[in-house]
Amino acid sequence: MVDPANTKLDRMLLDQISPAVMVLRTPLVEDSCRRNDLSLIEMLAPYSTFNNIDVPVRTASDQPYRLRKFKLRLFYNSDIRQRSAEAAKERLKQVITHAGDKNISELCSRQAEIESVITTAAQELVPSWFQNFNKELIDAAAFSEHEAFDHPVACLVAVSSKDKDPIGKFVDLFNTTQLPHLLNDGSMDPKILKYYLLVHDNQEGMLEKATGILAEMRRTFGASDCRLLCINSSVNGTEEYQQNSWASHKNSASNEKQFGCFLNKDDIEELRNTMHDFSSKHIIPHMELKIRVLNQQVSATRKGFRNQIKNLWWRKGKDDVPENPSAPMYTFNSTESQIRVLGDYAFMLRDYELALSNYRLISTDYKLDKALKHYAGVQEMMGLAYFMLDQSRKDAEYCMENAFTTYAKIGSSCGRNVTRCGIWWAEMLKARDQYKDAAGVYFRISGEEPLNSAVMLEQAAYCFLMSTPAMLRKYGFHLVLSGDLYRKCDQIKHAVRTYRGALSVFKGTAWSHIRDHVHFHIGKWYAILGMFDEGIKHVLEVLACGHQAKLTQELFLREFFQIIQETGKTFEVLRLQLPVINFPSIEVVFEDHRTYASPAAANVEESLWQALEEEMTPSVAGLKSNWLELQSKILPKKYKESNVCIAGEAIKVAVSFRNPLQIPISVSNVSLICKHSTECDKSEPASNGSLDEEKNDKGLRTVAVTGETSADASLFDLSEVNISMQGGETVLVQLTVTPKVEGTLKLVGVRWKLSGSVIGICNFQSDVVRKKVAKGKIKRKKSLKDNLEFLVIKSVPRLEGTIHSLPQTVYTGDLRCLTMELRNPSKTPVKNLKMKISHPRFLDIADQEVMNLEFPTFLKKQTISSRSCTTLDASKTAKTVFLFPKDIASSWQTPVKWPLWFRAAASGSISLYITIYYETEDVSSIIKYRTLRIHYNVEVLPSLEVSYRISPSPSRLHEFLVRMDATNKTSSENFQVHQLSCVGDQWELALLQPIGSDLSLGFLMAGQSLSCFFRLKNCKTRGSTEDKMSSLAKGIADVRLVDSESSGLFDTSVSPFDLFHHHERLHQERHGQGDDGNTVDFILIAESQDDSDTGPPRTTPEILSHYACHCRIGSSSPVWWSMDGPRSVRHDFSSGFCEINLNMTVYNSLEDAVSVRINTLDSLPRSNSITNTASVSGYEHGWHDTSHLTDAKVTPDSMGGRVGKALSPESVSPFIWSGTCSTRFNLEPLSSAEVPLQISVFCQGTFDLSNYSLQWNLLSGDRGDDGNESRVRSGSCHGRPYHITVLQKNKAEI
Fold this sequence. Notes:
Elements (H helix, E strand, L loop, with lengths): L7 H9 L3 E6 L1 H8 L5 H5 L4 E2 L4 E3 L7 E3 L2 E2 L1 E4 L8 H18 L11 H6 L2 H4 L3 H12 L11 E9 L5 H8 L7 H4 L8 E9 L5 H15 L4 E6 L33 H37 L3 H12 L18 H14 L3 H17 L3 H18 L3 H18 L4 H17 L3 H10 L5 H16 L6 H17 L3 H15 L5 H17 L3 H9 L9 H18 L2 E5 L5 E2 L5 E3 L4 E3 L2 H4 L3 H8 L13 H8 L8 E4 L4 E8 L6 E13 L8 E2 L12 E4 L12 E3 L2 E5 L4 E10 L3 E12 L3 E6 L25 E5 L6 E5 L4 E3 L2 E10 L6 E8 L5 E3 L15 H4 L9 H5 L3 E2 L12 E8 L4 E13 L8 E13 L2 E9 L6 E10 L5 E9 L4 E5 L11 E2 L4 E10 L19 E3 L16 H12 L10 E11 L13 E10 L6 E6 L3 E4 L6 E11 L5 E7 L26 H4 L24 E4 L3 E6 L4 E10 ...
Parallel strand pairs: 1-6, 1-7, 7-8, 8-9, 10-23, 13-33, 14-24, 26-33, 44-53
Antiparallel strand pairs: 2-5, 3-4, 10-18, 11-15, 12-15, 15-21, 16-17, 16-20, 16-22, 19-21, 22-23, 22-24, 25-27, 27-31, 27-42, 28-30, 28-32, 29-31, 32-33, 34-35, 35-39, 36-38, 36-40, 36-41, 37-39, 41-42, 43-45, 45-49, 46-48, 46-51, 47-49, 50-53, 51-52
Helix pairs in contact: 4-7, 7-17, 11-13, 13-14, 14-15, 15-16, 15-17, 16-17, 17-18, 18-19, 19-20, 20-21, 21-22, 22-23, 23-24
């Protein structure tokens, strides 16, 4: 707990509740004092305060105590009255205005951060002029009739030795007509102590005269009450003092001004002794005697149980008459006034216990008399006494709360007392570290007067800041309230100061609206004060206020331009936020050895290009390295951290500007800021204007009225862009700088002009340019991509390339012939051209002879015979880098044209990357080679969805049934299916049904589907006499699907069909499955039908090719077979059973020899029987229902089990297999064999001969592949359905 005697409240009470002395003087006394620019009271004031007077005091008790601190308050007789409201308001305004003018330099100082503000001591943080302001508020409530501590204790009468009849002057000065009103109306006791002071001016007369007057005074008024004071003893009036003791007592004085120039050391010592003797030998003894006398009277009349009962009875009989404000309710000689005087005198002599006891005694009387003002005053003094005694905190706060509410209840007449009580109460709470409660008290006394309220709200704000923990939001909010009231009272400087303090709280927070409010008004008020630089700085902070309403944005922008207009200057503003620059999206695109055909190519990740160019670019010392490492080994040491650019080639910078406002803005003259220097230039680099952020804290620079600065046009060229941005619009601006001469070039930033008034500047930093660094990798040293410095080298050749007629949107399978054109604008030729394409499945290189042919006509078979047939070269497809002919780029006059094949292989968004490598013939250049990077995006839409199902033919060996399903997946496009082709000479493909005039299945409208059936035959077999000639002939692998003889077939064995077939086989290849002869590849060719009436007609038909590779042609069994024999037989069963001869052909499709075993069963298993035998009479037996077989789909699993109704146990098999029940034989690789079979039929009917099985095994030791454990070496197959009908012969046939 802090000692109350060492608190700020104790010092305030010493200044405000101390003995008052009324001063009476003649005009000549004042004239003598004015020689020192001081009045009499101002000259005596510094010596009226005693920090260690050390005087023994004995009041009511017999035990004396020593008084350490003491002060006398001196007042002229005319000042002993309450100030008028106007005078009090003017005094307060002077204090505040003087404080604002005194601290004007602080408005330009750097704003402290909130963290440092919190740690600042209270005496440094709180403005010192608060003490003077609070003193003026307390003085405004002085000299009230209900309080005695403002009543004069003594009267100091001063007469000059030059006055005529000095003795008479002493008598005349204390005339009742010159005394204060309170002494004449009975509120104060007019019989007060008088002290007579004769003032002698050593500049005017001899001391002997003054000595004689003093002797006469002592004879008249008494020797102890008279004193001679000699002043102005300095000869020339040039006395100077290091400590200006009188400056603090001048209301508007400057600390640097010297006072007391005619007072020497003897005079000052005389002043000090005079006031000390006056206090210790007259004032204090007089107050002691007064206290003892009054205490005896009070003890005799009011203390004791009997006197208290008597007083209570007497007061209850009084009329309940409220206090009359126009006349004193209690005169100075009343018991209540005497007790109040006793308490106040004891308080001023620091006998707080005696004072508290008398305040308690009189408090009840005032309450019963309903003297509310007197009661509130006593409660106020009781609270102060409790605090100084360091007793009950609760009682002290209760008394202050009671006094405060009572004053407030009385009304406006006690407004000053409310303020004084609140100030003392708040200081009491602050002394006990109850800052939050003190802030609440300050808020309560911020009444209707705006200026008083402003100061009180500011003091409340500092209380919130010094609370534990600090209440920052309340601190900032109350500062804003205070600043707003300061502005209403035209105290602009104080308004700026408080708003700056609030800004430290709201800076860097999400409270955007109040932060904008603070910034805007600070800037506006700075402009009123003529501090335009500071005003612009703050208004700039609110320009990008996209979260504000549209009207607010217009207000901010209008005020900003108005401030700029008032200055009459043009400013360059660093970090101007209108428009807003999206720093992460800034891209710098330059060309060194890498060149780009389009901006889209420059936006591709560098790692993708490096991977594509890895096989083309040379390496250093036989080691593969990227271009950055290669460049660092070639460039001079001082330029290793710089990028390389070419003189005459533009450096492009993409800057994204965003208008954060809802209102349109105009941005003009957008350009880059660059610095250029040559190697021979040792002076400052040439620049087109920039702001150094480190050297300019304000971020402002005044330029010429036009605001235009430019660099030497001979060094580099800059582009300028003018844009008009709507509300919320984002515009990507492409800026360029083109260096003209060799040297170094640095990109410093970007500049623009906002609405023709303000030049905005943004300096580039290394972190504002987008870094293309792989994620997860630690970047150990500075990358060249992050450096905005460029080494400008001399011009080298640069190729320009484009692909003509490449569509942006196509359908799947679209096949086109495109032309790539390369140009060399430079006169220096290039050599060693190479090209690599990222996706050869979509884009591949054609032969140069295609340039002179008509596409797609030359791809048809009747035209191919007239030209050389180009087939797929295996060595060509294995190479990923295409080498142009050596002499193709030797000339720069004519462009290079080369054909390319394009095919939309899959749907989706496809990115095609092409890189072209070439070398320069200039050996002196730093860059030995360059690459041209080309990038295109193609949107591929679904067209036809094609699927195939292949199953072995049930009747013929080496033949298969193919079902093709095609669906048009487009919404508006129509397609004509042209042809289906099998890849390879061993295949023969034909339609199951020949094309007729009524066949229209090949035309597919949007959303339609198509199904076609084909017969597929493998012509490449051996070992079979039946197909012996087929192995020597070519199969017909193309089937025309349109009924038009004029529409020729496309030759799918030549480029580009075979080229893209190769890529599709690699793409669709199944893992772990080789081409063992059991798969086939199909190519479906279709044409797009242009039925739309809109748009220009197509000059050439659009060809679509769809590839299906690795389609399996059979089951997993390597053994194929077919059953041959009669399908219908007539027999006379009366002569016996019928024997039928059959023939089975078995084929081995493997490259290894196998062993085959055929097992026959005499009866159908119950699980394989088709149906029960019909109950018929006579010989009609064995009829079976086979209707479900006609509906069966032909699939590879058609030879699986068929489930039907089981035969009854008592039924007898209608036929049996004759001969052996098992046959075994061996088959050589890719060979066939015929096995004879026979059945015996006992009744007529239709029979299914599928009750047999084939088992096969690989012969061991063949091909030396016994180590392949994953290979299937044996298997078993069920018999395939084969139906034969046996009928009874007619009698006529027999």
